[in-house]
Amino acid sequence: MKNLSAFMIFLLLSAAGTALADNADPPESVVTEAAEELEVISAVDLEASDTPEDAGGSVNLTWQMETVGSDPDSLGVIRSGPEGEELITTLPEGTVMYIDQTVDNGTEYSYWIVSYSGGYVQASSEVAAAIPSAQWIYRGRIGMLIILSLMAGVIIYFIESGKKGKELFIREIAGLAAVDDAVGRATEMGKPVLYIPGIMDMDDIQTIASMVILGRVARKTAEYGSSLLVPTCRSVVMSVAQEVVKEGYIQVGRPDAYNKENIQYLTDDQFGYAAGVDGIMVREKPAAIFLLGTFYAESLILAETGRSVGAIQIAGTAMPSQIPFFVAACDYTLIGEELFAASAYLSREPKLLGSLKGQDAAKLFFMILIVIGVVSATIGDFWSPLKSVAEFLRRLVTVN
Amino acid sequence: MRLVIPLAITFTAGMIMILNFFVPHQPFKFLGENLQEWYMIVASGAIFLGVMNLMHVHSRKIRLKQKNWKYSPVTIIGFLLMLVTGLIYGVAENMPFDYLFMNMVAPMSATMFSLLAFFVASAAFRAFRASNWRATLLLTSAFLVMLGQVPIGAMIWDKIPLAKVWLMSIPNTAGQRAVMIGAAMGVVSTSLRMIFGIERSWLGGAD
Fold first, then answer.
1. CA–CA separation, A392 vs A394, rounded Å?
2. Nearest to A241 by CA among B69, B53, B2
3. Are residues A224 and A323 part of one domain?
4. Which one, of A338, A335, A288, lies nearest residue A309 by Cα?
C-alpha cells in the first residue's frame, strides 16, 4: 500500500513537471508560427488600368491580399505622377479595389499599395501603371446603335413616303375608333368624361403618349360641350394636362368652356390616388372613362369601379402585367404599341401615319431577326456555322 | 417663336439624352447627368403647384358649398395635419408624423390594395365565361394555373403543377415579351417623332 502511494505521488510529480516544462520551453514549430503572425500582409497582384467606357479621368486599381500573416490596420494608395509622389487615399483593411478619379487624361500614373500597422508602413505591393483616357462610344451598345439607326432610317423613309402622298394602310384599332363615340355618349347623357393619365410622372413615355391623346379628347369634349375631368397623381402631369386641355379648348374656339379646376392634383400615393379617383367615379358617375398611361396594381381597382358606375371604358397601357385586367374590365383596350399609335391614328396626318408604318416595318424586321435567331440557336446545337449566327445575333442585341 | 422654341428645346434635350446613352465622352455625360438632375429639381418644385391646386380646389368647394363639399374639409384637415406634424416634429420614427403615417395612411393604403382580391374575383368571373373557343381556352388555362398553385392540384394529379409552370413560363412569357417588344418599338417611334418635331400635338396641336 505504501509502495502504491509512493508510485502515485511520483506519477503526479512527473505529470506536473512535464506541464511546467511545456510552459517554459515551447516546441520550435510554435515559436516559428508566432513569429510569422507578426508580419503584416501585403497587397499583391496589383493591376492598374484605364476605366473602360468612361469620360476619362479615371483609373481602376485591383489587387489581392497575401493570405499568410497578420492583417494591417489600414491600406494606403500611393500615386506617382507629374505632381510627384502622394498618398491619395487610406482604405480599410480587406479592401481589394479602388477607382482613382483625380487623374488627367493622357498622363501616366504609377500606383502601389502600402499596409499600415501601428501607424507605420509595414509592407508594400509592387508598382502598377496606367494611362487614363476617354472613350467615344460604349462598345456594348454598338449593336443597339445600329438597330436604332436602321429603325430611324425606316421610319424616316415612310414619313417621306407619307409626305409625298403615298397611300398608307393602317389597320383599324377599335379602342381608338371608339374615342369619339365615348365622348359623344357622355355628351348625350349629360355626364362628364373622366380621363386618367396613369400614375407615373412626365419622364415616362406612356404618360407623354397619354398627354397626346388627352389633347384629342379635350378638343372633342370642347367641341361637343361636355365636361372633362382629369385627376392626376403627379404635379408635373397636372401642369402639363392643364396646358394640353387649355390648348385643345382654344383650338376649337371654346376657351370659355375650359375649367382649370377640372384638372386637379390628388396625391402622389398610389392607393391614395386610386381611392380619390374611385371617389370621383362614384360621385360624378362619368359616362366615359379613359385609362391611358402607366398603371400598376391600381389598374383593376379603377377599371372595376368604372365598370360598376356603368361608364364606357377605354384603357391603354404598355405594362404587360396590367393588360389582362383592362381586357377583363374595360370595353376597349389599347395593347402596348397601340397606345403610342393613337396620335397618328386619330389625326390621320400623313407624316404621323408614315412613322407608324415605319414602326410596323421595323417590327417585321425584328420578327424575322427573332425567327432567324431561334432557328439558328436551335439547329446550332448540331451544326456549328448556325451557332455562330446565333452568337452574332445575341451579341448584336445585348446591351451592356 | 411659340412653336420653334419648344421644338428646339425638345430636339436639343432629346439628342443629348440619346448621345449620352451611346457616348461616354464629355460633354455628353455631363449634360445628360445634368438634364436628369434638372428634371428632378423641376419635379420637386412642381409639388408646390400640386399643393396649391389641392388647397384651391377644396377651399373653393367649401366656400361655394358645391356638390359633395363636405368631403373637402376632411382632405384639407388631413393634409394640414400631416404637414404640421412633419414640420414641427420631423419624420423620424415614433414621432407624430410617423405615428399618423403608420397607423392611418399605411392601413388605408392596405385597405385599398386588399380590395383588389374582390375585384380580381369579379373580373375573373366575367372574363372566364366560356362564350367562344378563345374564352374557353382562357378559362381552361386559368383553371389549370389556379389549381397548380394550390396543394390540392398536385393531390389530384402530380402533373398539374408542371402544366402550370409550363403555361406561365412558355406561352405567358412569349405573350408578354411580344407586348414588350411592340411597346418598345412604339416608344422609339414616339420619341423620334417628338425629337424631330413630327409629333406636335403635345404642344396643344400647334402647327
1. 5
2. B53
3. yes
4. A288
Q: Under a CB-based contact definition with an 8 Å cutoff, are residues B109 and B124 in contact?
A: no
State how beta strands A109-117 and A128-130 pair.
antiparallel
C-alpha span between A310 and A17 (Å, rounded): 100
Contact across the interface for B108 and A271, Cβ inside 8 Å: yes
Last residue of a domain, one of A272, A305, A330: A330
Does residue A297 sit in helix, strand or coil?
A: coil
- H/E stretch holding A357 reads helix A350-379
Domain that holds residue A103: 43-130
Same domain for A183 and A322, yes or no, is: yes
Matching residue, cell 367562344:
B132
Question: Residue A40, SS3?
Answer: strand
Q: Which residue of A has its CA nearest to B174?
A: A320
| pLDDT single digits (tens) B23-52 | 988 888 899 999 999 988 988 888 899 999
pLDDT in tens, B77-98: 999 999 999 999 999 999 999 9
ipTM of model over 0.90: no
* Residue A161 counted as domain residue: no
- CB of B56 less than 8 A from some CB of A: yes
Count of all residues that appear for chain A in the document:
400
Averaged pLDDT for residues A145-168? 85
Of the candidates A259, A264, A203, A205, the one whose C-alpha atom is nearest the C-alpha of residue A230 is: A264
Give the other-Cβ count within 10 Å of A23's Cβ. 7
Q: Which residue has the cell 408578354?
A: B176
Give the Cα separation of B20 and A272 in Å (integer). 36
Residues A200 and A95 in one domain: no
- Closest C-alpha among A283, A287, A338 to residue A315: A338
Contact A300 B123 (CB under 8 A): yes
| CA dist., res. A216 & res. A213, Å (int) | 5
**H-helix or E-strand spanning residue B30:** helix B28-63
Q: What is the spatial distance between Cα A234 and Cα B43, in angstroms, rounded to a whole number?
A: 9
Most confident range, picked from A69-73, A165-169, A282-286, B131-135: A282-286
> Are residues A63 and A194 part of one domain?
no
Residues contacting residue B151 through CB under 8 Å, at least 6 positions apart:
none
Nearest to A292 by CA among A353, A232, A222: A232
- How far is Cα B23 from Cα B19, in angstroms, rounded to an integer? 5
Is the Cβ–Cβ distance between A198 and A241 less than 8 Å?
no
Indicate whether A189 and A323 sit together in one domain.
yes
Of A202, A303, A337, the CB nearest to B186: A337
What 3-state DSSP class applies to A263? strand
Whether residue A312 contacts residue A293, with contact meaning beta carbons closer than 8 Å, is answered with: no
What residues in A contact B172, CB-CB < 8 Å?
Answer: none
Answer whether A397 touches B (CB < 8 Å). no
Residue A264: inside a domain, yes or no?
yes
Of A270, A182, A272, A271, which Cα lies nearest the Cα of A228?
A182
Closest CA to A248 of B7, B201, B194, B200: B201
Among all chains, which residue has been given the C-alpha cell 508602413?
A: A121
Q: Can you give the pTM of this predicted structure?
A: 0.80
